[in-house]
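Two entries, shown back to back:
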Amino acid sequence: MIYDCAIIGGGPAGLNAALMLGRARRNVAIIDNNKPRNAVTHESHGFITRDGVTPAEFRRIAYEEVLRYPSVEHLQTEAVDVRKNESGFFEVLGTSGLLVQARKLILATGLKEIFPEIDGFYSLYGKGLFNCPYCDAWEMQDQPLVLVSESPAIFHTAKILLNWTKDLVVCTHGRSSLSDEQKTLLQSRGIVVTEQPVAAFVGHNGKLEHVRFADGTELPRTGGFVLPKFVQAAPFGERLDCERLDNGGIKTDGVGRTSIPGLYAAGDTSYFNPSQVVFAAADGSKTAMAVNLDLTEEDYG
């Protein structure tokens, strides 16, 4: 069978694209390895009617809704390779040996986070340490928090966090990420700034208790944010030689079309930032409409 569209990725972008294409009566294959990036967090926020939902429950509801449409199929495998064959169809190879052919292909594979190597981080991530203030700062409002990043983006995030707490320590983890002017501005707002490397996060049962620095000193904190570097979670855009944005995202025309005819990118895969469930779902919807339009133009002119 040759599908109208194959979608690699079962996150909000891929699932919303599948929903819209299913409603358009298109034959769709969702290729999803069931390993969502947000599985580590206890709740997702910022999506109206679903604020506070667990990632697992979000996926359960989403698949229940999407698979009501008989032309949508969920293939539980991990995509390991993609190519465009001589007939112009996209071919996706799964770990199970399954080969999927489709007229159009949506990359909704999302991002992978690369965090600074700090002892104790992963045992606290998603419970006492997070990466997005809009997603999780409400639950830690008015607490003593820490913000750790090696990126200049730390300045912007520090200012935003003042909406949730006035007790904030900013750690550049051994880097000179802030200008003297930025340090002065933050300090004038009561924010403590340190360039010391962070040696470890210390806590129990998912709750942060102390930040330990390289010199052995410890700072009591009850929660915080660590800013990661984002990279593509899958190499398919690069393998298909898509044009890229400076930040690493796949360049599109605003509604999902990439520089490769018939190939689309949706959600975090294309715009990279901000990484929000509601943004990704909306982008998946727009991309699906572009796919359906292009299929229609091919079929009927």
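entry 2 starts here
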Amino acid sequence: MWADSGYTGMLVGWCAMALNLMLTVICRSDDHTGFVVLPRRWCVERTFAWLTRSRRLARDYERLPASSEAVIPWSMTMVMTRRLGRHRRRTGPAPARAPIPAQRAA
């Protein structure tokens, strides 16, 4: 699992002990100034963008955090079903069509 540099500290050890996950903290080096693309950070940002497209996750409407956590699987299910349901462009030759019969003159 990847995390931003704001999640350093006890979280790394807690993830290893409680969740049996290896948390990798992606840090920005001090050599760079301005905007720097960090490795694997785009995966997290992209997922957050997908989640905030849901109306209920765009704002903090819920009273309890558990309610928001329950909406996240629904939102990701909607993202994946839309992605699976897309029509894909065929790369092979076009299918053969029957010729249109000539119309009779009346």
